[in-house]
Every structure is written in structure tokens, then in C-alpha cells.
Amino acid sequence: KEERMDKEIYKETVAKRAPKSPLFIDCLKAFLFGGAICFLSQWLFFLYVFLGAEEKSAGTLVTVTLIFLAALLTGLGLFDRIARHAGAGTLVPVTGFANSVVSPAIDTKSEGLVIGVGSKIFTIAGPVILFAILSGAIYGVIYYIVTLFS
What we know:
This protein is an all-alpha fold. The chain has helices spanning about 1-15, 25-50, 55-75, 80-85, 90, 95-105, 115-120, 125-150. The chain is built from eight helices and no strands. The relative contact order is 0.08.
């Protein structure tokens, strides 16, 4: 009983002292930064097509460019500064995935290439990869079964 009361008091104290998030402003910033990333992506796509890449290749080049830029900005310590203001606007696209792979690698580089970087590089991104592969496999099985009967 006493432990439950302590938890309730703790929750109330946290609720009173935690800063209130300006939800509308946060959503607006995420929308604008995410839109800016999409605008940059479209501009890069047009640039790559203009330079002679086929549309399919241009799309791949855009993705690789965004991953490179996000990894570079993470390595320079700038991605987190941007993400503080942009919120989900930077974390949802492929840029957020690149950041989630590079960040643990940077944090654990002092532990060595194998024990540090090698073993912890996918600590954040690993579950995303796992469930993406699992979802793809389940979808593939369902698709195969459905096509058998059509």
C-alpha cells in the first residue's frame, strides 16, 4: 500500500513539474522540417535526372544522399541540434534511420571497433530492421497464399 502511494505521489509530482509541450508548435515545426527534407529530396531527384540519371537510379541516389547527409550531420554533432527543433520532422524519414545507426557507433567508438562499434551499432536500429524483415516475410507468405487461389 505504501509503495503504491509513493508511485502515485511521484506521478503527481512529475506531472506538476514537467514542462508542458507546445503541441501545436511542435507539430508545425515537424511538418515544416519534414517538408523541407521532402523538398530537398525532390530537388535532388530533379538534379540527378537533369545530370543524366534514369528516374529509378535518381530515386536511389536521393536515398543514398539523404543517408550520407544525415550520417555526416550526426558525426559532426549537428543532427541532434536540428532534431531538437524539428522533432519528428527529422526522425521519421530515412534521415532518422541513418541517425539511429550512426549515433550508437559514435557513442561506443572508445570501446573499440569490434566490442564498441561493431556490437552496438544497431542497438537502436536493430529492432526496426528485425520487424521490417519479419513484416516483409509475413506479407510475402500472405501474398503467396492469396495468389495461389486467384
